[in-house]
Amino acid sequence: MGRMTSERKATTEFCDQPLTDEGGIDFEIIEGFFFAYRDFISDPDAILESSGFGRAHHRVVHFVNREPGLTVADLLETLKITKQSLARVLKQLIDSGYIRQMAGPEDRRQRKLYPTRSGRDLALALAQPQQVRIERAFEGMSAEDRKAVTRFLAGMQNARQE
Question: Cα–Cα distance between 13 and 116 in angstroms, integer?
């Protein structure tokens, strides 16, 4: 755990009552996110583990497949990670034949990323069980319900520049 600031002193007094709605916090929704995320990533995690890959690899494979030709700089911006973090993951994906890195046509220093056929197959294999969960969650919901979920998820994100 991180250090407590001088404004908040840690006390050793224990609490024997559960958190409920202190301060208007919606613990039901927060827990829903914890459990939904845990289950949503469990299937891809199992697939990735067999290759020695993890969630960082999943994110790279996903975004490179969604935008072939994505530059390394743009991927760094999308993922909000450091060059060092990306370098290790990207090297493993390139060495394993899932991603190709090519110099930009106008600027040879620019590095563009493309999925290989194996990279595309991996992205689809990772997304398929997630799609099954999404379809199951939307069963019985209307198109308007789907739009509301999409708006809600967009609202949960930090502002993105398009």
Answer: 56
